[in-house]
From TrEMBL:
Belongs to the threonine synthase family. CDD domains: Thr-synth_2. One of its GO terms (molecular function) is pyridoxal phosphate binding. InterPro entries: Ser/Thr_deHydtase_PyrdxlP-BS, Thr_synth_N, Thr_synth_N_sf, Thr_synthase-like, Threonine_Synthase, TrpB-like_PALP, TrpB-like_PALP_sf. This is Threonine synthase. It comes from Pontixanthobacter aestiaquae. One of its GO terms (biological process) is threonine biosynthetic process. Its cofactor is pyridoxal 5'-phosphate. Residues 98-328 form the Tryptophan synthase beta chain-like PALP domain.
């Protein structure tokens, strides 16, 4: 399998290459040269497999020759062996149409673990084949940071620098990052939003003093969903859920609380692979750039508004570029031009081809604070389920949608409610407890540095602490 950049001019790479590269050297995102496709019979043959085995089958065409089948099986067994639920991503029923796919049974209680447990192992495997050292630079609005740190803390040949927006993540999210005291973990709180952090991360990949791909001193790696391997691992749970609900004979719709568009793009990939997905519902909070883009073609970023679903407080949604590239005819040169204009103006219009292509599968909805609280109360009243604010946004959108009554609608439950206790208590009157597996989180020492958030301060902070590797 080969991967090409959405902006057309970076070299094409194999799976090992894209996993270590993160962002393409032309600033674009890597996508498979073509989508692997399963027949209906092949999909039917996946029903009933244990999660780790299903994962290996789904990932195999993307991995190509970069891992042997035995290596891939072993990595999947190790990654998903760390989950606290035997089903890894269990499915629960609300009523005749509405379902919940719980993605938070990993070590850090959010869906990010599903991909990052795998990515940590992939990094280790690929780095063991050379003497390279990887300097991971990541941006988080709370969940990617803790999941990535858990996945790479203490590993040889990796340093991780994680930027989070100061004061804009929950206490549990911050402590899950800052109480990990392994010497290869560097937490940085910046003044600014997730978008500011993500912009600095992308800039570092293009910095000729920093990035070895541009002649600089460090091999910069990515744990955000700009890294293709993140999305690949997330495709698996769409198959897992749909198979349980009757696919391939029956269609299924998904409602996905969305920020950086990674999770829902993984659903799009599942559909390209042949999974019969009726609809992907993109659910946003009031930071609704994706809702506006899908509804009206208006992709224009405003200022980020802090909400009770902080992990979705995002306006510049990296993976949307992958969708626009694929739906717009895979024209790298045109995509590069469109993104250059977005980067300059923070606004762009989708082309007709992009709008029509997206409309075939996606709809969208926007939830405000009241919508979110109402969905949390409904989940509690209808099924005794306490859900987190991000999941509530997905559930609100799922219940609002006009998907035909005979098609199941699965809301992705992206985080454990105890990560956002205050918002959950405000809406439902219940204060969820942290699962025992997170241990004495509030008794542990925290360590992090604070930076102003300008690119130069971040780059010099990294340069003083990272290991040179070309
Ligand atoms: C709990 C939670 N829900 C939803 C999202 C949105 O996911 P994505 O950025 O893949 O769209 C995030 C962060 O990304 C998150 O942490
Ligand atoms: N919500 C995320 C933001 C980063 O998104 P990613 O999926 O691209 O890593 C977070 O919690 O950090």
């Amino acid at each position: 399998m080969h991967y090409i950049s959405t902006r057309g001019s970076a070299p094409s790479l194999d799976f090992e290459g894209v996993t270590l590269a993160g962002l393409a050297s032309d600033g674009g995102l890597y996508v498979p040269q073509e989508w692997p496709r399963f027949t209906e019979a092949e999909i039917a043959g996946l029903a009933g497999l244990p999660y780790a085995e299903l994962a290996a089958k789904i990932m195999s065409p993307f991995v190509g020759n970069s891992l042997t089948p035995d290596e891939l099986h072993e990595l999947c067994a190790t990654a998903y062996g760390r989950f606290a639920h035997a089903a890894v991503t269990p499915l629960k029923q609300f009523d005749e149409q509405q379902w919940l796919l719980e993605l938070f049974h990993g070590p850090t209680l959010a869906f990010k673990d599903v991909a990052l447990q795998m990515l940590g192992l992939l990094f280790e495997t690929f780095l063991s084949r050379s003497d390279a050292h990887l300097t991971i630079v990541g941006a988080t609005s709370g969940d990617t940071g803790s999941a990535a740190i858990d996945a790479v803390a203490g590993r040889d040949k990796i340093d991780i620098f994680m930027l989070h927006p100061k004061g804009r993540v929950s206490d549990v999210q911050r402590r899950q990052m800052t109480t990990v005291l392994a010497p290869n973990v560097h937490n940085i709180a910046i003044d600014g939003s997730f978008d500011d952090a993500q912009a600095s991360v992308k800039r570092m990949f293009n910095d000729s003093d920093m990035a070895s791909s541009k002649g600089g001193r460090f091999r910069i790696g990515a744990v955000n969903s700009i890294n293709w391997a993140r999305l690949m691992a997330q495709v698996v749970y769409y198959f897992a859920a749909a198979l349980q609900l009757g696919a391939p004979q029956r269609k299924v719709a998904f409602s996905v609380p969305t920020g950086n568009f990674g999770d829902v793009f993984a659903g799009y990939v599942a559909a390209q692979m042949g999974l019969p997905i009726e609809r992907l519902i993109v659910a946003t909070n009031v930071n609704d750039i994706l809702h506006r883009a899908l509804a009206d073609g208006d992709y224009s970023a405003g200022t980020v508004t802090p909400t009770a679903a902080p992990s979705m407080d995002i306006q510049v949604s990296s993976n949307f570029e992958r969708l626009l590239f694929d739906c717009g005819g895979r024209d790298g040169r045109a995509m590069a031009e469109q993104m250059r204009s977005f980067e300059a103006d923070k606004a762009m219009q989708l082309t007709n081809a992009q709008r029509t292509g997206a409309a075939g599968l996606f709809t969208s909805a926007r939830a405000d604070a009241d919508d979110m609280a109402m969905a949390m109360r409904w989940a509690n009243d209808a099924a005794g389920e306490i859900i987190d604010p991000h999941t509530a946004i997905g559930l609100f959108a799922a219940r609002q949608s006009d998907v035909s009554a005979d098609i199941p609608v699965v809301t992705l439950a992206t985080a454990h409610p105890a990560k956002f206790v205050d918002a959950v208590e405000r809406a439902t009157g219940t204060r969820p407890s942290l699962p025992t597996r997170v241990g004495d989180l509030f008794a542990r020492e925290e360590r992090y540095d604070e930076l102003a958030g300008d690119y130069e301060s971040i780059a010099s902070y990294v340069a003083e602490r990272a290991t040179e590797s070309r």
